[in-house]
From TrEMBL:
Superkingdom of origin organism: Bacteria
Name the UniProt record assigns to this protein: Sugar transferase
InterPro entries named among the record's database cross-references: Bact_transf, EPS_sugar_tfrase, Sugar_tfrase_EpsB_2
Organism: Marichromatium purpuratum 984
Membrane topology type: Multi-pass membrane protein
Statement: the UniProt record of this protein carries the keyword Ligase: no
Keywords recorded for this protein, A-Z: Membrane, Transferase, Transmembrane, Transmembrane helix
Localization annotation: Membrane
């Protein structure tokens, strides 16, 4: 399955095409509902106008964004068909609520509720039928076929990673790696490499060889490249397929010579405007939630303890600042003064705290940190100075995550479970480096949309 790069972030081309097709289906469902509504009351259909076309396009865009927010344009169906059907229903209901809010805010937009309800029903039927048909006709329709060339731990790491949306068709060991253990996917290197690629119907070739000097079949790799087969190195493969910069493959020369890390003045200005706009919108929409949360925390502590808590974190360029959050732990959580990682089922978390951490509500006061310019809405998670000092002294490149402002949500928070150890922090660093390298407003929007999935389905929280 081919990928295209939009503002330095890889998107699966078939899934983008699927989003486009479903967008057209949403437009068609709206027009069908429009005509059915007038037919059901025995009235003549009004002459088509530009307004109806604009309404249908706006509806399609919002429905596609809602589908994306529910994870329906990812490379696999995580919970099977019933789970996917639930996500489709929730996505379209979410889109309908957004459209109703738009109609309420702008009364001159005449978006009839009966037409909207019928559009949702028809859209659920149409999208479910399309996805079932695609799967029945070709189960691997959205999968890209990849062949691995090499051997040893690096090749095995690529094989084991096997990201969703890929079909790794086999491993072709180089002759110098014949001592490696046999694998079920092992393909003998007893014929030209291009012929093996053709026979396996591979779309891409990953060269998983750590020490390449004198070991690569250069002529055969050129033949594959000239035949239209994409040839990738492991770092590029992991970056594209898993959204990470692998630390064990990272070298200073790769950091200097690879594309990305473009943080110009105009980019930063646009990011700041984006942060302020999103923060204001969230404050306007979520102040009732914040008020109820503050009251619940106060009631649970019988009005004896503070609702908020401040804690020093490390921000952009290593500068410390005080982060503000809703208090989710007991006030004596660190009575001995020793910093600790939060863990799963942490006994220090209160009953209200467990809920607001699961739903990410405890993070909402950080909107004020964003408005002050200490944080961005999207970025690496800000860590405590004690943890930063330890990790930066042990691991190279850890300080690179502080090249941008920390965020209320981020790429690592979406892609990796809640960190509770140094090892977790190291794995999240790989996602943070991907974000720092490939930052764009588009990626920020994508992270915000997918954050809705995290909140709705409770992924990754402790």
């Amino acid at each position: 399955m081919r990928s295209v790069r939009i503002f330095r972030h890889y998107m699966r081309l078939p899934l983008l095409i699927l989003a486009g097709v479903e967008g057209l289906m949403f437009v068609a469902c709206f027009h069908a509902s429009f005509h059915l509504r007038w037919w059901s009351i025995g009235a003549e259909v009004p002459a088509s106008s530009s307004e109806v076309v604009v309404y249908s396009v706006v509806l399609a865009v919002i429905f596609v964004l809602s589908m994306g927010a529910m994870g329906l344009y990812e490379a696999s169906l995580r919970e099977g068909w019933w789970g996917s059907l639930l996500r489709i229903v929730l996505a379209l209901l979410l889109g309908a609520v957004a459209l109703a809010a738009i109609s309420f805010s702008f009364p001159h937009i005449e978006l009839w509720r009966s037409i909207l309800a019928l559009t949702v029903v028809l859209s659920i039927i149409a999208v479910t039928a399309l996805r079932l048909l695609s799967y029945v006709i070709k189960p691997g329709i959205f999968k890209r076929r990849v062949l691995v060339l090499g051997g040893g731990p690096l090749a095995e790491a690529v094989m084991v990673a096997n990201p969703r949306g890929l079909d790794i068709v086999g491993l072709v060991p180089l002759q110098t790696d014949e001592h490696e253990r046999d694998l079920p996917e092992r393909i003998p290197y007893d014929r030209p490499l291009l012929r093996i690629v053709t026979e396996t119907q591979a779309d891409e070739l990953v060269v998983a060889v750590k020490d390449r000097r004198g070991k690569l079949p250069i002529e055969e790799l050129l033949d594959c490249r000239m035949a239209g087969i994409q040839v990738l190195e492991p770092q590029g493969f992991f970056e594209r397929e898993m959204g990470v910069v692998k630390l064990d493959l990272l070298t200073p020369s790769w950091l200097m010579l690879s594309d990305g890390f473009q943080h110009g003045a105009m980019t930063m200005l646009l990011k700041r405007l984006f942060d302020v706009l999103v923060s204001v919108v969230f404050l306007v929409l979520l102040w009732p939630v914040m008020l109820i949360t503050a009251l619940a925390i106060a009631v649970e502590s019988r009005f004896r303890h503070p609702v908020f808590y401040r804690q020093t974190r490390i921000g952009e360029n290593g500068m410390p600042f005080d982060v503000v959050k809703f208090r989710s732990m007991r006030v004596d959580a660190e009575a001995d003064g020793r910093a600790r990682w939060a863990t799963k089922n942490d006994s220090r978390i209160t009953r209200v705290g467990r809920f607001i951490r699961k739903t990410r509500i405890d993070e909402l006061p950080q909107i004020f940190n964003v408005l002050k310019g200490e944080m961005s809405f999207v970025g690496p998670r800000p860590e405590r100075p004690e943890f930063v000092a330890t990790l930066a002294s042990k691991y190279d490149y850890y300080a690179a995550r502080h090249r941008v402002k920390p965020g209320l949500t981020g790429w690592a928070q979406l892609c990796y479970p809640y960190g509770s150890s140094e090892e977790d922090a190291l794995r999240k660093l790989e996602y943070d480096l991907y974000y720092v390298k490939n930052y764009s407003i588009f990626l920020d929007l994508l992270i915000l949309i997918e954050t809705v999935e995290v909140v709705v389905f409770g992924k990754g929280a402790v």
